[in-house]
Amino acid sequence: MAMDAPIRMNTVPLRMTMTADVLTLSQLLSPSFPVGAFAYSHGLETAIAEGRIVSAPTLQSWLVDLLEHGGARSDAVLLNAAFDAADDAVAPIDAHARAFAASAERLKETDLQGAAFCETVETVWGIDLGRLCYPVAVGRAAAVLTLDPELTTAMYLQSFISNLTAAAMRLVPLGQVDGQKTQIALKPFCTEIAKQLQSATLDDLHNSAWLSDITSMRHETQYSRVFRT
Hints:
This protein is mainly α and 229 residues long. The chain contains ten helices and no strands. It is globular.
């Protein structure tokens, strides 16, 4: 009995901390958090208009590419780099993130969401992040709030996928059940990428999802649009 006590004493605080992390991240990355994520499609609107995404399987394939090779993965790299950075290294990381945006709309997307995120975090938590692009801002907020970086990355990626799935549900159109099945299918990618990118640096930054970048550029001149990007 005496030998069991230290185990209980050590694990309970860990569980409580992890639960608190989940609840805080659920709030920070919730659709209700005022960053305006619902207004952005990351070029998905053009891909759908051009007939590249017409069903749940084609949507899932597109999102897998973003997770493994495109904007979702590069965001995860930037988040982790910002999490581990010294205070004086944050500005260069943010500059890299802005330079890495493949189009004017991608830059607008990460800049405006990041600005809204920073403003809300300062108002609610009293944490002054300055003005950072979105993944860098999330990484810095997670560091200041001492949240688990792997969990933060996984939930950021899940939020990224959830937002684009919601856009596809309106535009394809895609049924709600298919939307939920798509998100379930992509959960393992979110968790595995989060594990792979622990302590990632700018040296890990790359992007080869060029079709997604091209559709984002085409969206700038698309005649009829629902989303800002």
